[in-house]
Design a protein that fits this description.
Blueprint (H helix, E strand, L loop, with lengths): L9 H18 L7 H37 L3 H7 L11 H21 L6 H31 L3 E3 L13 E3 H20 L5 H23 L1 H4 L5 H23 L1
């Protein structure tokens, strides 16, 4: 007979903690996820805890709680204008992985390579890329949601022509500044948790700024032409650009 699972092992903690937290969220009257979204968030949380421990898990929690709060800014106004997130901001599986697939892959890379002395530099870069992916996504979310509500002048990034808030590829000064703050929230949290250095904060901010603006270009060009290019696929591309930018910048700094 197999021995019982030790609840104090990483696996035991990951399974127990995620079950406890998501059960509480499930019972909460304010639904942040769809039923399927809770299951996929549970899978994500277990993977991240096993690969990066409580520090990496903390970044997911900061992103999820901050991103969910930002999405609800001016919800009534955005719903009236028809530019609000569907389901009043409740995340489904497509949102979970659109935001976190790239970060999860970086975490798995760290989990596989951690402990091998010759891979120390690679592990550091993958950890930086992990943080940068979430920094990028929170930057994008914050810029979009704040820009929809508070953007006084909204322009298409490719032509600088005025467009209505919520237009794919639209940017505003207010949204851009909010996006920088959003990326800083994740980067500073990661530094506080000991995942990145002070230089890493700057690298994540730079990577997020590059990726968020390129995501707007993709939205203004390719997404308006290709119906199959959904917001979730654009989010994956966005976070991938952020992670790869951080990898490149980090390798140059080192």
């Amino acid at each position: 007979m197999a021995p019982p699972l030790d609840l104090l092992t990483p696996w035991g903690i990951a399974l127990g903690l995620n079950t406890l937290l998501l059960s509480g969220a499930w019972l909460s009257p304010k639904k942040l996820l769809t039923p399927a979204g809770y299951l996929h968030a549970w899978i994500l949380g277990v993977i991240v805890w096993i690969c990066l421990g409580w520090r990496g898990y903390g970044i997911v929690m900061v992103y999820f709680l901050t991103g969910s709060s930002v999405t609800r800014i001016g919800m009534a106004q955005k719903e009236a204008a028809g530019i609000a997130e569907k389901r009043s901001g409740a995340r489904g599986p497509e949102n979970v992985w659109g935001s976190a697939l790239v970060g999860t892959l970086c975490a798995v890379g760290v989990g596989i390579l951690a402990g091998r002395e010759e891979m120390t530099a690679v592990v550091s870069l993958l950890t930086l890329a992990y943080v940068a992916s979430f920094s990028t996504k929170l930057s994008d979310t914050t810029a979009s949601e704040v820009g929809k509500v508070y953007g006084k002048r909204t322009f298409l990034i490719t032509t600088l022509q005025p467009v209505p808030p919520g237009t794919e590829g639209a940017v505003s000064l207010e949204g851009t500044l909010a996006g920088i703050v959003g990326s800083a929230v994740i980067a500073l949290a990661a530094w506080g948790l000991g995942l990145i250095s002070p230089v890493g904060i700057a690298l994540c901010l730079g990577a997020a700024f590059i990726a968020t603006n390129l995501e707007s270009v993709i939205g203004a060009t390719l997404q308006t032409r290709w119906g199959w290019l959904t917001n979730e696929l654009v989010n994956i591309a966005n976070t991938a650009i952020g992670a790869l930018s951080a990898l490149l910048l980090g390798s140059l700094v080192d």
